């Protein structure tokens, strides 16, 4: 899978991106990460596993 620029990513699309973590918000059940590359920013959400 080739890397994509953030500006070319469509919502719900599965892609490989490379950039810097600009912001990280760690909540009880979710983690929100704002990634930044040369073309823009994207928020990624990760659902935590229930233990």
Strand content: over 45%
Write down the Rg. 12 Å
Q: What integer is the average pLDDT?
A: 92
Biggest sheet record: 3 strands, antiparallel
Helix content: under 10%
Order of helices and strands: EEE
Distance between the termini: 32 Å
Strand order of the largest sheet: 1-2-3
Q: pLDDT under 50 segments (min length 5)?
A: none
Number of domains: 1
Q: How many H/I helical runs?
A: 0
Let me know the number of strands: 3
Oligomer: single chain
Structural class: mainly beta
Shape: globular
Task: Tell me about this structure.
It is a single chain. This protein has one domain. Helices cover 0% and strands 45% of the residues. It has no helices and 3 strands. Strands 1-2-3 form a 3-stranded antiparallel beta sheet, with no helix packed on it. The chain is globular and about 35 Å long.
Helix and strand layout, with pairings?
Blueprint lengths: L19 E7 L3 E8 L2 E8 L4
Antiparallel strand pairs: 1-2, 2-3
Keyword list:
single chain; 51 residues; mainly beta; 3-stranded antiparallel beta sheet; 0% helix; 45% strand; globular
Quick description:
With 51 residues, the chain is mainly beta. 0% of the residues lie in helices and 45% in strands.
